[in-house]
Design brief:
- The structure holds two protein chains of two kinds.
- Chain A is an alpha+beta fold.
- Chain A folds into three domains: 145 residues, no CATH class; 122 residues, PH-domain like (Roll), CATH 2.30.29; 40 residues.
- Chain A contains eight helices and eleven strands.
- A five-stranded mixed sheet of chain A has the order 7-10-11-9-8. A four-stranded antiparallel sheet of chain A has the order 3-4-5-6, covered by helices on one side.
- Chain B is mostly helical.
- In chain B, 58% of the residues lie in helices and 10% in strands.
- Chain B starts with a strand and ends with a helix.
- The chains are: A alpha+beta, B mainly alpha.
- The interface between A and B is medium-sized, with 21 and 19 residues.
- Strand 3 of chain A pairs antiparallel with strand 1 of chain B.
């Protein structure tokens, strides 16, 4: 890790530690005026319905702050700095810290001078106030990040070298390959298992949704990608539908490039992002097509260099005719 | 895997498809146990008749490179030797072409191979 990275982790962890410090200081200062049994949980009307002793208030507060700080530390330590989303995640940490810090403090104040906690009320507007504090904290976080001098977010690497395939006049070529996704397969199987357990426990009614989703995801977890006279096509191996196709006339140029599923496309599956979309089955090499309108479409598949070269060749040939 | 067929070539289209698969197995682009595209899909891709593709697949089956199973389609034989076998078959094709270019008859070529086997 370099210095920028350490600073980013420090900035990401800071709000949780600050919120914890404020809450603990408040607790220490108000300790003599708090009842031994604190109201710590409230229903929608603001009436207390859950209680804890003072010791567990401190424990829960420390546990919550340290846990959240650890999560954000890991995110900050591993996030791809070149992606704008990293900043948003750190900002969200400030918001989360602001909200939990405020609500914890508000609960303390609500308990002030109470006899045993049962008459304590924490109205719902306190939550709104908490959200306002969260927004302020997020703003502060954004300002701090600006001071941090992070490397600027770069757009995804532009098209690399545009390769072509050496095809004889009149020679016809096609390229086909399966693009299995371990992630989607695992999600599909997990949903089926959940559905199976639900069927066993509750019967069909509650299991229908996870079972249907699991089957759908599993069915789409291994698309078949072809490049031929129709253009670039991706469809599930077992079903003719759903199908994604980019006709040759729509292909400006195609390249083979490494893509990152989480950092660039925010996950797996059919992803839509500003200016680009993609069938992202895994991180790794992908055919990235720049379409006639300037939008990008990516499919992650092995041997993508051959496919991209063939797509360029076929598209040019189609344009000449 | 890349399939190439040239209608202008004297080699039959089915054999050209078989040659593409052979090359892909020999180069390791297609691994043992991997499924080849369905004949219908490949025929549509290349704009050839389904039977042409099936003829190519049939030839590969005779060579012991793929298995044709109902419902599962064409699958590359799951043996570690598949790749080297495909490489050998590619070279056999080259040998035959070279012999034809030299004007050797079938019997002469077979006799030559037989002599080197002894």
């Amino acid at each position: 890790m370099n210095r920028v990275r350490y600073r980013l982790v420090a900035v990401a962890v800071l709000p949780f530690l600050l919120a914890l410090a404020v809450d603990l200081l408040l607790f220490a200062a108000l300790r003599d005026r708090l009842p031994t049994r604190l109201a710590t949980h409230f229903d929608g009307g603001g009436t207390a319905d859950g209680y804890a002793d003072r010791g567990s208030y401190v424990t829960v507060n420390i546990g919550l702050a340290v846990g959240l700080a650890a999560v954000w530390a890991v995110i900050a330590a591993t996030a791809d700095l070149a992606v704008r989303g990293a900043r948003w995640v750190v900002g969200a940490g400030y918001a989360a810290a602001g909200l939990t810090g405020y609500v914890m403090a508000a609960a303390l104040y609500a308990n002030l001078d109470a006899v045993d906690g049962s008459e304590v009320r924490l109205p719902l507007w306190q939550l709104v106030a908490g959200l306002a504090v969260a927004a302020l904290a997020a703003g502060a976080g954004a300002l701090l990040l600006r001071l941090l001098d992070l490397p600027s977010a770069v757009p995804p690497p532009g098209p690399g070298a545009v390769e072509r395939l050496d095809l004889a006049e009149g020679e016809v070529a096609g390229w086909a390959r399966r693009a299995p996704s371990r992630t989607l397969c695992a999600v599909g199987v997990a949903l089926l298992v959940v559905g199976g357990v639900l069927t066993y426990v509750y019967g069909w009614g509650r299991a229908a949704a996870p079972l249907a989703c699991g089957l759908l995801i599993l069915g789409c977890s291994c698309p078949y990608v072809t490049v031929d006279r129709h253009g670039l096509t991706a469809r599930p191996t077992v079903l003719p539908w759903p199908r994604v196709r980019i006709p040759l006339a729509d292909v400006d140029r195609a390249v083979s490039r490494e893509v990152k599923a989480l950092a660039e496309y925010g996950g797996w599956g059919y992803r839509v992002r500003p200016g680009r979309s993609g069938l992202i089955l895994r991180s790794g090499e992908a055919i990235v097509v720049r379409r006639a309108g300037g939008r990008e479409f990516a499919v992650t598949v092995a041997d993508s260099a051959t496919a991209a070269a063939l797509l360029n060749t076929l598209a040019e040939r189609a344009a000449v005719r | 895997m890349l399939f190439r067929v040239d209608p202008a070539s004297p080699v039959a289209l089915g054999d050209q498809i078989a040659a593409s698969v052979r090359r892909a197995i020999a180069e390791g682009t297609v691994e043992p146990g991997e499924r080849l595209p369905a004949a219908r899909v490949l025929a549509d891709s290349l704009g050839v008749n389904v039977h042409t593709v099936l003829r190519g697949y049939q030839r590969l089956r005779e060579e012991g490179l793929i298995e044709l199973r109902r419902g599962r389609g064409a699958v590359v034989v799951e043996a570690t030797s598949s790749r080297t076998r495909a490489g050998l078959l590619v070279r056999v094709r080259e040998l035959v072409e070279e012999a034809r270019r030299l004007g050797l008859t079938e019997d002469e070529l077979v006799a030559l191979v037989r002599t080197s086997l002894r």
